Amino acid sequence: MGFREKYARLGERYDALEKPLERFFCPLRKRAAEFVKGKVLEVGVGVGKMLPYYPPDIELHAVDAVPEMVRIAERRAEELGLNANFYVMDAEKLEFPSGSFDTVLSSFVFCTVPNPERAMAEIHRVLKPGGRAIFLEHTKSDCRLLNWLFLKPLDLLLGVLLDDNTLRETHVLARKYFEIEHEESHYRGIVRLIVARKPGEQSKAFKDRGA
Q1: Which site from 54, 126, 156, 173 is most exposed, i.e. has the minimal number of CB atoms within 10 Å?
Q2: Distance (Å, rounded) from C-alpha 189 to C-alpha 94?
Q3: Among 186, 68, 204, 75, which residue's Cα sits nearest to residue 135?
Q4: Which parts of the sequence belong to the Methyltransferase type domain (predicted)?
């Protein structure tokens, strides 16, 4: 059983599963949303945990590979009065033209996607030159002891439950594709917020506007 089937079976119970972590994650989601502008794509929207934090002046598009999760996110957007477009779509194969978005955001997604390199390349492709990529992700800790005592057992458990891999180095992968503007390490690197740019002609214009 792959991650799609596992997340589909969880459905709305995913909220309950993650609830003990919300006091740690919610401030970071709010922080990540501060960096979005313009036409925005959220990759891996899940049940819509990022939705309450987006500014009202963006054009939001959101994708997830699990139809059951997309339906929950759509309902949450309606409850919030948020105008957004939702699609069932794989992160590794985004069905948008190249250079479609000003911002692409992923929140706790790269621990789950089967092929993170391909997903990163797709995010790079659909961003406009000078566009911003934002990653709020589980990553391998800076502390080797913490990796062995906490993340490795958690990785085994979540691997069985959700096909998650909490020991991935998404922060390293992002550097292969983007210019890193800002990086925050939280809880000894167990979670990182990475703000990056796609190199291109618009990069200077974005910086000049203070975007």
Answers
A1: 156
A2: 28
A3: 186
A4: 41-135
